[in-house]
Amino acid sequence: MAHQILETNRGASGLVLAGIPRRGVPLAERLAVAIEAAEGVRVPVGALDITMYRDDLRSQPTRPVGHTRMPGDIDDAVVVLVDDVLFSGRTVRAALDALGDLGRPRAVRLAVLVDRGHRQLPVRADHVGKNLPTSADERVLVRLAETDGVNEVVITKATKTDPDAATPARTGSSEGAN
Amino acid sequence: MRHLLSAADLSLTDVGSILDLAEEMADVQHRSIKKLPALRGRTVVNLFFEDSTRTRSSFEIAGKWLSADVINISAKGSSVSKGESLRDTVLTVAAMGVDALVIRHAASGAPQQVTGWIDAQVINAGDGMHEHPTQALLDSFTLRKHFGADSGVDAFAGRRIAIVGDITHSRVARSNVILLKKLGATPILVAPPTLLPSGVDSWGCEVSHDLDQVITGVDAVMMLRVQRERMSGGYFPTPREYTVGYGLTRDRVAALKPGTAICHPGPMNRGLEISADAADAANSLILDQVAAGVAVRMSVLYHLLGGEGES
Description:
Chain B: Its EC number is 2.1.3.2. Chain B: InterPro entries: Asp/Orn_carbamoyltranf_P-bd (IPR006132), Asp/Orn_carbamoylTrfase (IPR006130), Asp/Orn_carbamoylTrfase_sf (IPR036901), Asp_carbamoyltransf (IPR002082), Asp_carbamoyltransf_Asp/Orn-bd (IPR006131). Chain B: Catalyzes the condensation of carbamoyl phosphate and aspartate to form carbamoyl aspartate and inorganic phosphate, the committed step in the de novo pyrimidine nucleotide biosynthesis pathway. Chain B: Heterododecamer (2C3:3R2) of six catalytic PyrB chains organized as two trimers (C3), and six regulatory PyrI chains organized as three dimers (R2). The complex is a heterodimer. Chain A contains 5 helices and 7 strands. Chain A has helices at 2-9, 24-39, 90-100, 145-148, 163-166; strands spanning 15-19, 45-47, 78-86, 107-115, 127-131, 138-143, 152-157. The radius of gyration of chain A is 16 Å and the shape is globular. The two termini of chain A are 20 Å apart. Chain B is an alpha/beta fold. Chain B has 2 domains: 3-132 and 292-306, 3-Layer(aba) Sandwich (Rossmann fold), CATH 3.40.50.1370; 135-289, Aspartate/ornithine carbamoyltransferase (Rossmann fold, 3-Layer(aba) Sandwich). Chain B is built from 11 helices and 9 strands. Chain B has helices spanning 12-28, 54-65, 86-95, 110-115, 133-146, 171-183, 211-215, 239-246, 250-255, 276-279, 286-305, and strands spanning 43-48, 69-74, 100-105, 121-127, 160-164, 186-190, 206-208, 220-223, 261-263. In chain B, the strands form 2 sheets. In chain B, strands 7-6-5-8-9 form a 5-stranded parallel sheet. In chain B, strand 3, helix 4 and strand 4 form a beta-alpha-beta unit. The A-B interface holds A 49, 51-53, 57-65, 67-68, 97, 101-103 and B 17, 21, 24, 27, 31-33, 35-38, 41, 66, 302-304, 306-311.
């Protein structure tokens, strides 16, 4: 994926990686390390919390808000949004809104580790680690060493008590339902 | 959390969560676009039966930056001045379909009373001599930053904080005592005997009548405004005498430990409870308190209105 990003951008200049918490942030860090190894340039990494921009904020109990920290000005930068799973596309829509409140990037691209399909919005990723065909009632869990102590992608059958998988209309919580 | 009526309503977890989110909200103040969509479509009414500059305007800015529709109603210039009762005013406002009511009233317990009349969520923005919970939250937010801890609530463990002046009439003092004790700090009340309320022993605080003795050993001094509008007289002989006994004078500023925070909830009576030297000192956090007001109130509004139902 790091090589794909460099190829599309024709090098690392002007790049900013913006991870969507929680797991998008360590993934963005990992991409920055891979880009540095390939290109010898350290690309700035930020975190872009999208909680306040979710379209289901009102229908849920009050959600904890994460950190938004962007490495400097994003005007005229090429921002690559990084997330673990691409599902309905609603997280990405929220992220685009959040980004619009922070500045005006020259271009925004999307990099996801897993694209599991079932889009509800016209969103397509530019860089995908793995396309993973799933049924709508399955869950895809990405676990990372930084947040979960282990690196793995797990597909589970949703249980009746699992609201995330039963209603894919909700934007994700980095639990694969996004 | 449905309403915010008292600092006592907040668990330690609530306080930590409100202060942590306020850190995030404080960053919004430095953005070119000061707007978050979290409360889009919600209506917040600031219902102020008493005069206010900073509390009302910071609630207004906080609501607007979170994209809520904010309406301000003050007693002067509204039907309250024609004799309408609190209950009728509140019912009228609530009938317009508001989601939250930020209320300031001269009667202690008024916001609590209001919760029984309407469905909207209620935030106490100062009720009589009772409480002012968002002021205490913003004081804690400002002090936590000053003590050098951006997260966690343990910045207060072992800290000694003097609250000086008119304790009897101060809702700020009451809310601060509750919150600071909750956070693990030791509040010390410093006032002449006439300005200490009866039953102060039950607050579980140290009490002193000697400011000079206390200020050399504290991490922060919170000066309180001498509330001349609430005093019918007889609390102290003359303003001059009050300043000599309990004002934060230049000499007392010099006696503070280095780095001791100076706080004042405003508006200040310069030359009475606080000297210009103290108000403008390098370790004065008075303007930081004002700036924190917006961030903390954004956080409170989000915690109360940001979702549906209990979290």
